[in-house]
Amino acid sequence: MEFFTFAWVTDPQIWLSLVTLSALEIVLGIDNLVFIAILTGRLPAHQRSVGRKVGLSLALITRLMLLATLAWVVGLTEPVFTLAAKGFSWRDLILIGGGLFLLYKATTEIHQQVEHDEDAGDQPEGAAGATLRNVVLQIAVIDIIFSLDSVITAVGMADKLWVMVAAVVIAMLIMIVASNPLANFVAAHPTVKMLALSFLLLIGILLVADGFGVHVPKGYIYFALAFSVAVEALNHWVRRRRRRLKATG
């Protein structure tokens, strides 16, 4: 095996492939990370960090299991039936189901944020009946969707299995480290949380459209998210500056 001969150490193509794929896996994992941050925010405070780490660990396990069955994953792209001259594969059906699930979860979360009872403000976050078991179960379901998309991308970008595995592990380790700061920031800023939920709505629509054969490059979605985050950062800076002026004035 080439990995154990260490021939890859001096091969710039291997390093380029590893770095590129790791970066791409991180980008593709942003939606998964945001979903986990939103969902675990409903847990009691002492369980949120555990929920995030368990969720991302499940995502890593799912990706590695899919990589171990590459032939089966590639077979998921073969049409299993045709409807209205459109062939649907298992991948299409999984994307459609996952997209609808994401739309449902994002919509219900937005509804709870906008239409919550007046008494809800006095309750601690996580008191709405969310349990660690239910949250982890929902994370596991959506992990399958995001992992499938991630692994299919990895298969198309790298020729060697160990490079794919290394890229997935590196990306997941970085995401685990970043999960707590991201989740805490989202929880502390309601407008950012609403922005994250809107982003999940877009991803859900994108998954459903992809399942029906309408391929929209994710770069457009990520650019829109980055632009929105930049605008929100400016708003946050302006609000802080105004509070500071009022305090000193």
Describe this structure in words.
The chain is mainly α. The protein folds into 2 domains: 11-214; 217-249. The protein has helices at 2-5, 12-28, 30-40, 45-67, 70-75, 90-114, 132-157, 161-188, 190-211, 218-248; strands at 79-83, 86-89. The protein has a two-stranded antiparallel ribbon with strand order 1-2. The chain starts with a helix and ends with a helix.
Short descriptors:
249 residues; mainly alpha; 2 domains; two-stranded antiparallel ribbon; 10 helices; 2 strands; 4% strand; globular
Number of strands: 2
Which strand order does the major sheet show?
1-2
Oligomer: single chain
Percentage of helical residues? over 70%
Topology pattern, helix = H, strand = E? HHHHHEEHHHHH
Q: Let me know the largest β-sheet.
A: 2 strands, antiparallel
- Category by helix and strand content: mainly alpha
Q: Unreliable stretches, pLDDT < 50, 5 or more residues?
A: 117-124
Q: What would the average pLDDT be, to the nearest integer? A: 77
Rounded radius of gyration (Å): 20 Å
Distance between the termini: 70 Å
Count of the separate structural domains: 2
Total helical segments: 10
Q: What general outline do the C-alpha atoms trace? A: globular
What amount of the residues lies in strands? under 5%
Could you provide a short overview of the structure?
The protein has 249 residues and is mostly helical.
